Amino acid sequence: MDFIQNYNLTGLIIGILTFIIIGLFHPIVIKAEYYFGVKSWWAFLIGGIIFTALSILVRNLLISVLLGVIAFSCFWSIQEIFDQAKRVEKGWFPANPKRKK
Questions:
Q1: pLDDT score for 99
Q2: Beta-carbon neighbour count of residue 6 at 10 Å?
Q3: Would you list the DSSP string of 19-61?
Q4: Three-class SS of residue 34?
Q5: Are 51 and 68 in contact (CB under 8 A)?
Q6: How far apart are CA 94 and CA 88, in angstroms?
Q7: Cα separation of 9 and 13, whole Å?
Q8: Per-residue pLDDT, 97
Q9: How far is the CA of 98 from the CAs of 35, 75, 85, in angstroms?
Q10: Rounded to an integer, what distance in angstroms lies between the CA atom of residue 80 and that of residue 84?
């Protein structure tokens, strides 16, 4: 951590990891909607609450910020689950044939 602070890399690392976290949530939302439907929004809500609490409890700034990014990516994913269901209805993504409507 001293290396990161000595070379003032905190902002750059937060930016890169935020980009990666958001990129990881895109396929997670698609898979969650495919296998569980819109009822999976509860998992994102619970995850968001847990990561928010962890972000508040952690003293390290870098880790706290990244936990906050994960928390709000979870919260954002709640809306994305419902949007993904609409995209499936439009035929933009495949529907899961094994899941009952």
A1: 76
A2: 8
A3: HHHHHHHHHHHHHHHHHHGGGGHHHHHHHHHHHHHHHHH---H
A4: helix
A5: yes
A6: 6
A7: 6
A8: 87
A9: 9, 27, 15
A10: 6
